[in-house]
Amino acid sequence: MKASAKGMNAIDIIHLHEWRHVFKLDPDKDIGDSALEQICMSGTDAIMVGGSSGITFENTVDLMSRIRRFELPVVQEVSDLDAVVPGFDAYFIPMVLNTTSTEWLVGQHKRAIEQYGYMMPWELIVPEGYIILNPEATAAKVSEANAQLTAKEAAAYAHIADKLMRLPIIYAEYSGTFGDMETVKQIKAAASDAHVLYGGGIATIEQAQAAAAVADTIVVGNIVYDNLQAGLDTVAAVKGSST
Ligand code: 1GP
Q1: Which parts of the chain span the membrane according to its record (predicted)?
Q2: pLDDT per position as a tens digit, 175-225
Q3: What DSSP string runs through the chain?
Q4: Which of 103, 111, 196, 243 has most Cβ atoms within 10 angstroms of its Cβ?
Q5: Ligand 1 atom 2: residue of nearest CA
Q6: CA of 220 to the centre of ligand 1 (A)
Q7: In the CATH hierarchy, which fold is given to the domain comprising 20-239?
Q8: In the structure, what pLDDT confidence band is assigned to residue 1 with cuts at 50, 70 and 90?
Q9: What is the pLDDT of residues 97-115, one digit of tens each?
Q10: Rounded to the nearest whole angstrom, what is the distance from the C-alpha of residue 198 to the centroid of ligand 1?
Q11: pLDDT greater than 90 at residue 233
């Protein structure tokens, strides 16, 4: 999987539009070699590496190099510029649409580009329009998001991402809790072109199937640290089904 292939952008290289299921692994959490192998060999479509706190260059490079022993695409979701590690297939850059501070929409991004713009691998960078929907999530607190949204409001943000900003990804983020599928359904309905990721609280086959029925891709996170087998079971639950 060479990200530098000429004439292809990161979205094509990682086959984003074929993703139905991904695992998100947190560099700040320990995972043993056997568990990591089972995750990477599970049939999932890709691994996202990222988290909301405790992310460093060291723990990110360590996790990336361990995942790199396997064939599947691996992308970094960047939350801290100091922890950006060369060698991922793509870099997902969150832009929090429902933040109350421009800092999390474009502020940090502007400072990063001022400082490092000359060396940015633009062809590997994929912006994500984040809609954070769980007020208790660390991501909601850190990004000062107004996460108490009606389905209609969430869909309006999805329209902004899809139609005004033309972002390639919309991320319906309920991190830590299983979300309202009607809201996700309306986000998906608003997205003509954007690829819709759903993440948050998926711990069972039924939840995986319910989320996969309304989103293009489901993101499975914390359950792999709490109950590995339950996490692995979510792969078979959604692969082969369609939205
Ligand atoms: C977190 O959306 C992901 O960014 C996954 O959430 O950890 O709750 O599965 P969970």
Answers
A1: none
A2: 999 999 999 999 999 999 999 999 999 999 999 999 999 999 999 999 999
A3: --TT-TT--HHHHTTGGG-SEEEEE-TTS---HHHHHHHHTSS-SEEEE--SSS--HHHHHHHHHHHTTSSS-EEEE-S-GGG--TT-SEEEEEEETTBSSGGGTTHHHHHHHHHHGGG--GGGEEEEEEEE--TTSHHHHHTTB-----HHHHHHHHHIIIIIS--SEEEEE-TTS---HHHHHHHHHH-SSSEEEEES---SHHHHHHHHTTSSEEEE-THHHH-HHHHHHHHHHHTT---
A4: 196
A5: 199
A6: 6
A7: TIM Barrel (3.20.20)
A8: very low
A9: 999 999 999 999 999 899 8
A10: 9
A11: yes
The alpha-carbon radius of gyration of the chain (Å, integer) is 17
User: Which single residue is written with the structure tokens 């832009």?
Assistant: 95
Q: Are 59 and 30 in contact (CB under 8 A)?
A: no
The pLDDT assigned to 81 comes to 82
Report pLDDT digits (tens) over 38-94.
Answer: 999 999 999 999 998 899 999 999 999 999 999 999 999 998 888 999 999 999 999
Binding positions for Mg(2+) are: 26, 52
Quick one: tokens of 231?
């996490």
Amino acid identity of residue 29, one-letter, is K
Note if the pTM is more than 0.85.
yes
Q: Which residues line ligand 1 (CB under 6 A)?
A: 24, 173, 175-176, 199-202, 219-223
Q: What tokens does 230 get?
A: 């339950």
